Amino acid sequence: MNAPKQKQKDPYSLKSFRVLVADDYPFMADLMTSMIRELGVEHILLANSGAEAKEMVMMFNADPGSPNHIDMVITDWLMPGGDGDELIRWIRDSKKDAIKFLPVVLCSAYTSEEIVTIARDSGANEAMVKPISAKKMADRILHVINHPRPFIKTPNFFGPDRRRRLEKYKGEERRVMKPDEVKETHERL
Question: Is residue 83 part of a domain?
């Protein structure tokens, strides 16, 4: 008796995907570009500072209907002319949805627990430690694409949900209204 074959998911094309790599070290920027190109991404933009990355994001993502919009930003942490933290905060604080919802991956040699926490709290989707491998790069990019996290807005934070595990809440329920009641209330307004 033959075991049933598992249906494999067809791979998708990243040919039209557009990635911005912000890194002040040319060798590392070229290396990351080569790795990303191996994933089938044909449109890779390079910025050598946070300030240059901001200009490029504004140029390509200012118009939400633009066919040339940037789909993901991969940024170094320490750069002259605006660091990765400043870039991430600027993206998340944007008034334009085509900018503020951009996936951002931190890729830095300086990824202590403190820096990863700061990047996460600034709104980074993921973090990678240099030196990186092609597999690590592919895993992080595909994880962001395949497992998008909902965005959360609080008085002090806007960005992808920082929780990694979904666990059932074990405390006392203190909500005044249940979620479906909120929906009904919204419909009446």
Answer: yes
Instruction: Say which residue, 183 or 126, is predicted with more confidence.
Output: 126
Q: What is residue 83's three-state secondary structure?
A: coil
Question: Is 1 a member of any domain?
Answer: no
Answer whether residue 185 shows pLDDT above 50: no
SS3 letters across 119-156: HHHHCCCEEEECCCCHHHHHHHHHHHHHCCCCEEEECC
Structure tokens at 1: 């008796």
Is 186 part of a structural domain of the chain?
A: no
Domain of residue 102: give its range.
18-160
Q: Quote the number of domains for the chain.
A: 1
Name the average pLDDT for the chain. 85
- Look at residue 16 and tell me whether its pLDDT is greater than 70: yes
- Residue 131: is the preceding peptide bond cis (ω within 30°)? yes
Residue for token digits 């919204």? 186
Specify if 72 maps to a domain.
yes
